[in-house]
Amino acid sequence: MDNYIGKHLLIDCYNCRSDEISSSENILHVLEDSTEKIGMKINDTFYHEDTDEIIAAAYGIKSHVCIHAYPLIGFAAVDIYSFSTDLIPSRTMAVLRSTLHPEKIRATSVKRGNINPDMKPSIKSKSTALHKFKNTGQQVKNAGQKVANYMRHKTDKRDTLGPE
User: Fold this and answer.
1) Is the pTM above the cut of 0.70?
2) What are residue 54's phi and psi, to 5 degrees?
3) Rounded CA gap, 102 and 25, in Å?
4) What's the alpha-carbon Rg for the chain, to the nearest Å?
5) What are the phi and psi torsion angles at 65 (to 5°)?
6) Rounded Cα–Cα distance for residues 20 and 95 (Å)
7) Positions of E strands within 16-162
8) One digit per residue, pLDDT tens: the chain, 164 residues?
9) Is the Cβ–Cβ distance between 110 and 6 less than 8 Å?
10) SS3 of 146, please?
């Protein structure tokens, strides 16, 4: 049985309304509404704006909400992380739809923090059969080149020894 206690919701908002996504005040408003909707108490915030990106983040106890807005392409990436079973990150979807007005939303939910005591780390080799085959082929090729160079070198030396 899996005992995940963390939730991580990644939300991509495509073709957002340009006036909504280019306003730093609106992005901060979306951040505040999102944290309120999921029931997160804000302890600290971060804000950064430059010519092509607005970043706003709110941090709570065992949780955060971060919005990366790209006005030039009408895209917003929202990251909601909670290591608390009390918060429900998916509640922010309604806020995003009503404030950013995206044409399309894609959400990915990731479970975090499996605290199952029976869980054991698995060790997997990163070498695949095809990778090993390619390496073997390269090793054979290199060995063949070494033999050819050795034979060429021996022949060159023999030719310089004088008349036969």
Assistant:
1) no
2) -125, 130
3) 18
4) 29
5) -130, 130
6) 13
7) 44-49, 54-60, 63-70, 75-82, 104-114
8) 567 778 888 999 999 998 889 988 999 999 999 999 888 899 999 999 998 999 999 999 989 999 999 999 999 999 999 887 777 778 888 889 989 999 999 999 888 877 776 665 555 555 565 556 566 767 777 777 777 777 777 666 555 555 54
9) no
10) helix
